Each structure stands twice: as C-alpha cells, then as structure tokens.
Structure of DUF3558 domain-containing protein:
Amino acid sequence: MAAVSVVGLAACGTGGGDSAAGAPASAPADRAAWQQEDPCSLLSEQDLRPYLGDEAGSVSPKRSSESDRPTCEWKSGDFGEVTLGLWQPPAPDIVTDTDKTVEVGERTGYITSETELSCAMDVKAAPAYVQLHVRSADVDGGREHYCEVAAETAQAALTKLGW
C-alpha cells in the first residue's frame, strides 16, 4: 500500500523539486520552456467547434498551472468541454502502459477514457506530453471511436507547438 501512495504522490508533481512549485509566475527561470507555453493559444475556434458547437468562438478560456502543468479549459453549457494541458509524467509507464491507443500524426495517443461523446488521452511528445480531454456538446452526434476526432485536435496543438 505504501508503494501505491508514493506513486500517487509522484504523479502530482513534475519531478522538478520544491523550488519550482513555490515559485511565483514571474520567475520563468525556474520553469522549463514547455511550462511557459500558453495552451490556450494552441487551439483555434475551428479546433474547438466539434466539442463546443456554435459557441466555440464565444467561450472564454480558463488558464491554470497547477503543479507547473500549463492547462487551458473551455466549457460550453452542460456538455461541451475541452481541456488541454502540457506535462511530464514522473513515470511514463503510468501513461504508456495501455493497449488503448490512437494515431496522432506520427505519434501515439494513449487513451485513458473514451465514450461516444468524450475522450481523454495523453500524447507522447518532446519535451512534454500533451494531455487532452474533450466532451461533445452534440449529444446526438456520438461516435463509436471518439478519440479519432480528438486525435485531430491533439495534432493541431502539436503542430502549433512545433513538436
């Protein structure tokens, strides 16, 4: 049980030590270049439209950076949601140890959850992983393999990052 607790705690951090966790946002020298990326700038209105519908252009993004993981979230109504984050898993096997995958360009998206209307995945890239969670506002437009739709969105973010 102790080993599980240690892994759980390790998954919450970035492996960068305590100095970066307590550093103010104005101290970019303590943060890696990928931690200074703005994930809200990585998706366009067109990229958000499959999930947020006609409201894609009017939804204001919400930025956060808990545990030095830059994240952006767009929400529309009760259903539509897109969350895009950048992170480095402390033990990559916690992400990559799955048979559920999808192609994201030339990379692999590791699926953690998929329904007809949602997908959560992590895409292995360098220098960090792209984490994407999407849920559609179109409850009548469900698809059997929703992560294939999300893979296109993840690829758009990776293209803008130049990774």
